[in-house]
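Morning run. Coffee first, then this:
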Amino acid sequence: MDTSFSVWHWLVVLVAAGVPLLLLVRHRRRRAAAVANAPPTGIGGWLALFAGILCAGLLKSVAELALGMPDYLSGFQNKAAHGPLAAVGLIALAIMAVQVWAIVALFQKKRVLRTACAILWILMLLAPVSLLSMLTVPGVTLNVILPAEDILRSIAALTFMGLWYWYLCVSTRVRNTLVN
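And here it is:
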């Protein structure tokens, strides 16, 4: 009985072990390529960042409302300020309502998110404009209601929101995610 291992034996062992290994490697590569070529979906990437910013914006709005409420209510002591203050308050509440609408639409993956963000952008534009009605109140000046840093902050926020709206319109991930 010859116990030597010939080249033919090694070839059989190599084929028996190598073919399944080769098939496994090919399967893994095809699967990785399929995953890499799959269109992005779900709340991830830049859309996840947008979701975080949207939620943080709502929290900021609620905090600003809570902190500014005493000053806002004290303004109603002046009868000439009732109308302008009501307009400013309604715009602030509308902004928060649309923020909630946009957050719900995003997490429910609804197409109406783009519409909600467009309305939010318009309301953000109207908020500083609504403050101009306060100029009808005696003793109120432009510097009091709209300091220069608030104007710059508003312009930056409008630009920022415009860029995010553009992203919502052109992103493949957003198109594939907002399906309801």
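The chain has a mean pLDDT of 88. Good start to the day.
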